[in-house]
Amino acid sequence: MSTIGGNASLFIKEAAVRWYMMLDMRGSSSFGHSMRTRLELKEVSIEPSPDDSKKMSSKMVCDLEITPVSFEILRGSAISLLLMRLLEDENEVIGVTQTFNFFFHHPAPPAGSRIRIINRSVSTAEDVGCCQSEVGLHLLGRGHI
Fold it and tell me: What is the predicted pLDDT for the residue at 68?
């Protein structure tokens, strides 16, 4: 836990890690297992929403090396929403994605590159939540494009 940055409490950081592990309960037969084992959770923060400063938002930042089959946003968005629900009412129930929209601004980076995935909860309600995910290329520590 000490390597995970951000201002979230230890309890919330542990919940993020625990849910990544729980979604991989079947080991190598779990959906996305090969990606999860390479994913590095870098930050878990609670901060004002970028869309509405009156609301709070959970934010998770992960790094992942690109391989020909790498793709890991679904889990991060679901866990990000769960973290906000956990803060709001201690309801640790994970949901499923019903709609997923992608906007590509750059071509896919080559294998071996590292990408940074930032998942932010936008809104949570009793039955529905919304999350925004950003994927950026992280080049040699110079930030993302």
Answer: 59
